[in-house]
């Protein structure tokens, strides 16, 4: 079987100018990066600002499993299908993170016939956005430590600096360190660590910024730590916000690429879906809506994390009103939710599907709580049996939902045509009545309880007194109106990764809360959240290299 | 007076395609990065490989002072002048480092009317080359620590890992650290530190690589540390060379930009001129020579460091044969070499010029030892008096050299026309008989003594027994044939930064020697060499930001 890289290479890509033309983007707004990538000039965002907006379709998924669900391929396949069906559609995706390309996960440009291209470029440096974000993050760090070094006029407590450095690399050895060693001329010793770039607040800010001015204002609001008496110090206090914005200026312009079938795609920004909100940039989504009749976009992890944050953080912040949710599932993954081990997924097991489908059912019902019509995309594997598929369809019928078999991985647009027609029909009906789950005025702890109750079906939220006091403090500081971003495992509705399916009555333990004042949300950390991944025993990097023609090989 | 940024912005740049056409580069070989930057495809390097080569002019300078000399502006001004005089000329420069843009030094795109543009882009992320180099450097680090973490099958001694991490930032707090803290699942605790990206061996390799295969081979030869029994471990042992080459693949293609007067310029690579060889990439210089009748290129710091390395490291490694050296000086800098403080440079002081000109004289005579004709470019300041200029000319006449007054900073090409005509005449005469200073077969310690004697006029090289033993060990390992790269202060011919002018009979103390096996040279560290700069009390970053139109402001 051909690898994704082989399929991508075999495809003939159109010049990016031709893709732009299809998308209604004038030549003058293109900032080309090679022949198949371009940034879209700020001027385009200005001229498009008053255009009528298209419909917004969110692709989300069941709680992820080791079996894989195919959310990105479905986003691409659905976009291709809609374009093939005559609906002018823009696909909006997150940019892949560089680090995981060298580890276990690999790239994130879809797969099979449902890919955005050029895959090597997008997976590695692309147009440099993540490098710019890394640089902005680390310039702030350098300026903080430089401030300490030159006398600490602001009185920052070096033990209370919460701003960490960032690198787009899976590198566990950078998690915890003591730096500034070597004597008085070499810095100020203190504890620090690196997060992977997608976990940086700069990434979240980048993806929520509505324009350059908003970007700089948000950067300025970043809280980097406290003085001994508890006063918060911001990036603006450090005078870093201007230079950070300068580093991010060009990057903030959305990136245009194409799918293997020639659909235009905006691939821009990519925050974590645990400690951040997990969706591509507001700049890209907004621009896409002004250009196309339909935007198909994706949120990270399962619908309890990515979609909830899309709907409670990104949409309210950006003034977006989504029209439809597509929940992606596979028979294999549902069998895992039904208790089957990955190694035993081969044989038919209808009972396991029936046990595991509760995960899908709950995600569908959750999406309806936001006022959205929902369809299910069932990514077909060759091992799926008719009886297993029927079990999923039956479960969906019971809740008045419909599941559509998708084969875009192998067949491209044609494989998602049925799903595409269903999406067209639902959008034409226009029954969406989007609302976020809670009002801004609700106290932070209540927001958290609302998410836990409505989305996770938790019986209780455990908020230790110190955490409650911090939430209170955030409210006193004027951040009571912001949404809450829950960082918990993506593998379960609960905070326990092993509880698959649709657990009920569990307890959500809140370990700590952090204020992302620039991004504009409070992070509630529930469980062990990894903000700097490690590499496996045999990293993918060992197999990556150049072939005899100097082309990059081994990416997946 | 207009700032460099204002002058650069006021200029009307040509589309990069028009610049390429001027340079004889076919449209198909252009990989555009926006409208005014492009990378040049590997295919062009292949088709140009057999073309006759143009003449190679090296621009170097006196020992730098706080007064500034203007080596980059002279390289650009001379290139513009030659093009204006009808000689098809390509300018080859190093890429600026990002870190110093936020500190004291600022950018490095020339100044006044002698600039390469777009200056904001080139000074910040440009085409992402340095980010790629940083990523490749740090992927190797991550894979080393990951190898230690998963059982250390190669038996690396964690205390003997010499490979450091890199960041393109002035950040002193990263110089020395203990990382891998936090317990068994968080890594392997050990000492480490970050160098600025231009000091990474990956940067030196990038700039010496002749093609992709050579790049990967050199990366594989990097020695990352030793086992307990002293066996060297390479990047190839870690299986990192392929993925590092993949990260660097696109970056290795030279970058084309333009001067404000429309000359083509290849701006590519930029290693430090102390612990590395301080010149732009071999890929760019070689390509330039195949495209143009003359290439004007620049080496870092004074001629004792940059030019010596250009002539003893880069040229032999790349099979280049330079035809002429231009030594840049200013009356002001010569007065400083004559003992005048920077604050007292205003009034005429012919005697100081006469005292300080010895620095220029020696650099000129040194360049002749390489078999090169030499001209002097005297960058004119408004405060220079006729008598002071006459003193320089007189000193030059005594050694049979000629100094040409240059005003390209204020007047562009016209200001370097006289210098340009002299360069044309000398190139037409064709008297260059380039030879490097020493033969590859000379023992490493003798190479070092040769440089110290011939170039620095040192009486003695102090090589402690431990250092001598290491040099011996390098020879036993098969690295006796490589050149020696001296890392010493750029401010003096000696290792003492305060000894300006032309000191004689001094001692060169070698503190340590390092093998850059991938780059292919031995570094002799003579004195305190900073590989990670810090920020000043008031970093330039504080003044950098976006103006009301969203343009970047405050770069210089």
TrEMBL record, chains A, B:
Q: Name one GO molecular function term.
A: ATP binding
Top-tier EC class: ligase
Q: Which InterPro entries match?
A: Formate_THF_ligase, Formate_THF_ligase_CS, P-loop_NTPase
Identify the EC number(s).
6.3.4.3
What is the reaction catalyzed?
Answer: (6S)-5,6,7,8-tetrahydrofolate + formate + ATP = (6R)-10-formyltetrahydrofolate + ADP + phosphate
Question: In Gene Ontology terms, what is a biological process of this protein?
Answer: tetrahydrofolate interconversion
Annotated residues that bind ATP are located at: 65-72
Query: What keywords does the record list, in alphabetical order?
Result: ATP-binding, Ligase, Nucleotide-binding, One-carbon metabolism
Spell out the HAMAP family in the cross-references.
FTHFS
Member of which family?
Belongs to the formate--tetrahydrofolate ligase family.
Write the protein's name.
Formate--tetrahydrofolate ligase
């Amino acid at each position: 079987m051909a690898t994704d890289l082989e399929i991508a290479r075999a495809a003939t890509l159109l010049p990016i100018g031709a893709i732009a033309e299809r998308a209604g983007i004038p030549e003058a707004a293109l900032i080309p990066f090679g022949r198949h990538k371009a940034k879209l000039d700020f001027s385009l965002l200005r001229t498009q600002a008053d255009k009528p907006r298209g419909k917004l379709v969110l692709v989300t998924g069941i709680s992820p499993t080791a079996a894989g669900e195919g959310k990105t391929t479905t986003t691409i396949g659905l976009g291709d299908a809609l374009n093939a069906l005559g609906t002018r559609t823009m696909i909006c995706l997150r940019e892949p993170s560089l680090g995981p390309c060298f580890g276990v996960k690999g790239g994130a440009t879809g797969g099979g016939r449902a890919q955005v291209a050029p895959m090597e470029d997008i997976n590695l440096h692309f147009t440099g956005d993540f490098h710019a974000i890394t640089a902005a993050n680390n310039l702030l760090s350098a300026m903080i430590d430089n401030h300490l070094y030159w006398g600490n006029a602001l009185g920052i407590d070096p033990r209370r600096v919460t701003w960490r450095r960032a690198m787009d690399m899976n590198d566990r050895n950078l998690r915890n360190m003591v730096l500034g060693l070597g004597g008085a001329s070499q810095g100020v010793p203190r504890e620090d660590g690196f997060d992977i770039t997608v976990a940086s607040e700069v990434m979240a800010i980048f993806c929520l910024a509505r324009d350059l001015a908003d970007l700089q204002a948000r950067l300025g609001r970043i809280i980097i730590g406290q003085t001994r008496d508890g006063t918060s110090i911001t990036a603006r206090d450090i005078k870093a916000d201007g230079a950070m914005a300068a580093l991010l200026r060009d990057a903030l312009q959305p990136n245009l690429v194409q799918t293997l079938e020639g659909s235009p795609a905006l691939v821009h920004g990519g925050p974590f879906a645990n400690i951040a909100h997990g969706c591509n940039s507001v700049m890209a989504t907004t621009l896409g809506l002004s250009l196309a009749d339909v935007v198909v976009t994706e949120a990270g992890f399962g619908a309890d994390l990515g979609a909830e944050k899309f709907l409670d953080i990104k949409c309210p912040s950006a003034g977006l009103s989504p029209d439809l949710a597509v929940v992606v599932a596979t028979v294999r993954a549902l069998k895992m939710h039904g208790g089957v081990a990955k190694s035993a997924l081969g044989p038919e097991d209808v009972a396991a599907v029936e046990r595991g489908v509760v995960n899908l059912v709950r995600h569908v019902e959750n999406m309806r709580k936001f006022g959205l019509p929902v369809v299910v995309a069932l990514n077909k594997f060759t091992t799926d049996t008719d009886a297993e598929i029927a079990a999923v369809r039956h479960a969906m019928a019971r809740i008045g939902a419909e599941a559509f078999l998708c084969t875009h991985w192998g067949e491209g647009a044609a494989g998602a045509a049925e799903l595409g027609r269903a999406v067209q029909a639902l959008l034409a009906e226009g029954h969406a009545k989007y609302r976020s789950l809670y009002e801004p005025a609700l106290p932070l702890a209540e927001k958290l309880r609302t998410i836990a109750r409505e989305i996770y079906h938790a019986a209780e939220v455990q908020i230790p007194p110190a955490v409650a006091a911090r939430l209170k403090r955030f409210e006193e500081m004027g951040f009571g109106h912001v949404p809450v971003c829950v960082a918990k495992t993506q593998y379960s509705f609960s905070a326990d990764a092993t509880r698959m399916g649709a657990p009920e009555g569990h307890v959500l333990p809140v370990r700590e809360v952090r204020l992302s004042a620039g991004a504009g949300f409070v992070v509630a950390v529930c469980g062990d959240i990894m903000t700097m991944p490690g590499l496996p025993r045999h990293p993918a990097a060992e197999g990556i290299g150049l072939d005899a023609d100097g082309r990059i090989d081994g990416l997946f």
